Amino acid sequence: MLGPVNHIALAVPDLAEAMARYRDRLGAHVSAPQVLPDHGVTVAFVECGPTKVELLEPWGDASPIAAFLARNPTGGLHHICHEVGDLLAARDRLVSEGARILGDGKPKIGAHGRPVLFLHPKDFFGVLIELEEVKPTSAEA
Ligand SMILES: CC[C@@H](C(=O)O)C(=O)SCCNC(=O)CCNC(=O)[C@H](O)C(C)(C)COP(=O)(O)OP(=O)(O)OC[C@H]1O[C@@H](n2cnc3c(N)ncnc32)[C@H](O)[C@@H]1OP(=O)(O)O
Ligand SMILES: [Co+2]
Predict the structure, then answer these.
(1) Fewest CB within 10 A of the end CB: N or C in the chain?
(2) Complex ipTM more than 0.95, yes or no
(3) Which mutation among 46, 104, 118 tests ligand 1's pocket best, with the greatest number of atoms within 8 A of CB?
(4) pTM for this one?
(5) Locate the VOC domain: which residues (predicted)?
């Protein structure tokens, strides 16, 4: 059920500064920032192969990363995102096994235009996990 790591996310206090540091010190290509009001973040991706680094800055008054940054004011590792082929099937199986889905349990459209869900960090050894639906291609199915 669990697929490759799509991205590893860092919460950062200043997105422009984080983007510049990845670009200038590490020579990375960084995507343009994208505001995602539904998620309460502004995001940019460090393009470094199939697994990306996602840089997150809080957006708006109710950002889900605000408390995390208050506890980690210089930033920190926020979540790991795995791809899954069927997000609703993965959700239903996880719920039946007692895992907690964050929010209202319904997928939202994430930064890549695909449905995503989050699993409670207390159910996965203190790590927040995001699941992103990536449908298998017909060759893989
Ligand atoms: C860009 C769009 C999308 C994509 O396509 O990639 C994204 O990635 S959006 C990313 C931002 N969105 C989310 O994170 C949504 C899911 N997150 C949440 O709902 C909340 O962040 C949370 C996980 C419920 C935590 O919210 P918070 O306000 O921090 O709650 P608490 O302060 O009560 O913390 C509870 C408990 O959990 C620990 N915690 C919090 N965040 C993390 C974390 N990122 N990793 C590990 N542990 C975390 C926190 O320390 C508390 O622990 P205790 O003190 O021991 O109770
Ligand atoms: Co993410």
Answers:
(1) C
(2) yes
(3) 118
(4) 0.97
(5) 4-134
Q: Of the listed 130, 132, 133, 140, which one is catalytic?
A: 130
Dist. CA 38 → ligand 2 center (Å): 13
pLDDT tens for each residue of 80-120: 999 999 999 999 999 999 999 999 999 999 999 999 999 99
Task: Compute the distance between CA of residue 40 and CA of residue 98 in angstroms, rounded to an integer.
Answer: 27
Give exposure, 94-130, as e/b (b: 16+ Cβ within 10 Å): beeeebebeeeeebeebbbeebbbbbeeebeeeebbb
Q: For the segment 7-17, what is each residue's pLDDT rounded down to a tens digit?
A: 999 999 999 99
